[in-house]
Amino acid sequence: MTVADAEKIADLLRVNLLPECYILSEEIRELRRILRYRNMIVRTATKMKNKISGLLMETGTPYNKNKLHGKKYFGNLLERIEDVPDSVKDMLKLSRSSLEMFEAVQKKLVNTLRKDNLIRERVQRLMSIKGVGEVMALTWVLEIDESSRFSSARQAISYCGLCSAQRESAGKEQRGPISKKRNKHLQTMLVEAAKLAPRWNPQLAALHEKELIRGNRNRATLAVARKMVEYMMAVERQQKDFVPSELAA
Fold it and tell me: Which residues of the chain have pLDDT under 70?
């Protein structure tokens, strides 16, 4: 790189025309690698569950989908099914063994992350928000690293891919699809968490109901996800457990 190149890059940075790249610390990158591997294991385990269900449906075997993946129920099911080829039974057994292995591995990986002193305190604070579980808190900490790099919750929401382009014409407002320029790992986890969080958090439940009145369930889920980001940013800024606004008052 020449001096002229360096000067040009410096000028572009000064006038905000060159995007900066944030690099996580080596320790956080290592922990994030473990978490992403755990997520891959969970996805694979889900595929295995679907395969077990598919094999049973192919052979016309009735089963209770709520109990299917319980060890005792599955064992009893294998013993009583009839008129099913031995090859199918072997595949069911193999799939079940693989599923148990995947579940054991993912639990071991989460336990490794849970005990790490570098992130344990932050994770515990984030979990003080009702509706934010351990995996959600871990994902936030390891994908965001330092939340102070975002000047506002709005910027963090954009990074998570929870906002969409807004167009207004003749007094009518239109929104496009959610942004594809995002951290896909955070976006996926936040959307999934937002589907369950209203069950545990009264404030998020009220927000979800308010958005549902407008008739769009997906927008209601996104609204909850955005609010969760605001809550987590508040916890990170204040460095203390979350207190709902009505209790804080």
Answer: 1, 165-177, 179, 245-249
How far is 190 from 41, CA to CA, in rounded Å?
19
**Strand spans (E) along the chain:** 164-169, 172-178
**What is the distance between the alpha carbons of residues 163 and 155, in angstroms, rounded to a whole number?**
10
Does residue 106 sit in the same domain as residue 126? no
pLDDT tens digit string along 232-241? 999 999 999 9
Radius of gyration for the chain, computed over Cα atoms and rounded to the nearest angstrom: 23
**Spatial contact of 18 and 9, defined as CB atoms under 8 Å apart:** yes
Our count of domains for the chain comes to 2
Rounded to two decimals, the pTM is 0.83
How many CA atoms are closer than 13 Å to the CA of 207, on its beta-carbon side?
Answer: 21
pLDDT 10s digits, 24-73: 889 999 999 999 999 999 999 999 999 999 999 999 999 999 999 999 99
DSSP label of 179: P
| Domain's final residue, options 79, 114, 149 | 114
CA-angle at 187, arms to 195 and 239, nearest 5°: 90
Range of the domain at 87: 26-114
CA pair distance 46, 39, nearest whole angstrom: 11
What is the rounded CA–CA span in Å between residue 71 and residue 207?
Answer: 38
Beta strands in 51-185 (DSSP E): 164-169, 172-178
Q: What is the pLDDT of residue 242?
A: 92
Residues shown for the chain: 249
